[in-house]
Amino acid sequence: MEADGFVSRRTSVETPGVDSRVAGAAAGAEFRWLGGRLLDATGGFVGSLPPRMTGEQDFAPVLHRATPETSTSVEPEIDYEGLPQGVATSTHMLAGAVAGIMEHCLMYPIDCVKTRMQSLHPEPGARYRNVMDALRQIVRTEGVWRPIRGVNVLAVGAGPAHALYFACYEKIKFSLSDAIHPGTNSHFANGVAGCMATVLHDAMMNPAEVVKQRMQMFNSPYRSVLDCMGSLLRREGPAAFYRSYTTQLTMNVPFQALHFMTYEYLQELLNPHRQYNPSSHVVSGALAGALAAAATTPLDVCKTLLNTQEAQAIHVIQAEAATAAGAVGAAAGSRHISGLGEAFRTVYRMGGVPAFFKGVQARVIYQMPSTAISWSVYEFFKYIITKRQHERRLRGDRDGDK
């Protein structure tokens, strides 16, 4: 067998007087015994050894020099897919936090466009043909910094949310996979791990999502993130920050289950040996994100409505309630849209079935690079951390041999 230019060879023992243990130990080097002397591969004599136990002692140094080269050439491949044993959960959390912050901050302008394009009754100044047209109009009419207004609150929320998200996912995925199919990948485990990780992620991320989307709306009345948070607390109470939480979970649980299962399946096809392969992580992440985003767009439209409490939608509800009650004053209590059921009914009343897919183009365009960035950064950190652990372990082994 040849590996990295080093060839291991068999040993042939022609003298019956040689101890069988010497013959077994000499496997891997091309030497022959002849008349009690040792011949090299060319037939030249390299030394004389008596056919006794002392011969075994004299032969040992020759073998000892060959052994380290052989072991180095067949050095085991780094298993980066699962971080090394003993790595603290904080390692997963750090990699996840960096991935989450980069994902959301880099794609924030597209997220702003998505929020506006999901408006059920956009104002004349906020009607766009496509994503690029929206970005051009926003920059031209509202300023170059308008597409990233509110990014700071998202960065603050994305760090801890994604830290918990990836740490929970890795822990549950490996534990459940080992319980179901030890030593193999389980799509069921991947889906369950994604769902459980989403519950923790959304619990921390939902308040940031509410503030972010209020800041992203056209003609947003809030001067800053703190002004938006203070206004929400005064006018709508603490419940406003979690009004869309159940809808967010209803959307994100199937989204993440589909996302993780698709990603892991594509990794099996594109990267069967599960090595660090940036191109496969980018392609798998982008396709998984696009598929999951398109399938869950109707729920995202409802979530946006619950977060923004679009004024025109509230007027429609109030008018319908007033007509049903026979008096305008009867609708005074219906000031907010709450609950997934009411959000679905409102979206359907205002635009029918097509309204559930408003902004689907922007959502897919946002999610493809977003999930590609997230997975690429996360897998890169996993690889770097694993490589350093592996090198540290090898140095420790060498020091121990010395």
Can you characterise this structure?
- There is one protein chain.
- The chain is mainly alpha-helical and 402 residues long.
- The chain has one domain: Mitochondrial carrier fold, CATH 1.50.40.
- The chain contains 14 helices and five strands.
- Keywords: Ion transport, Iron, Iron transport, Membrane, Mitochondrion, Mitochondrion inner membrane, Repeat, Transmembrane, Transmembrane helix, Transport.
- It catalyses: Fe(2+)(in) = Fe(2+)(out).
- This is Solute carrier family 25 member 28.
- It comes from Seriola lalandi dorsalis.
Summarize the structure.
The chain is mostly helical and 402 residues long. The protein is 65% helix and 3% strand. It has one domain (89-388): Mitochondrial carrier domain (Mitochondrial carrier fold), CATH 1.50.40.10.
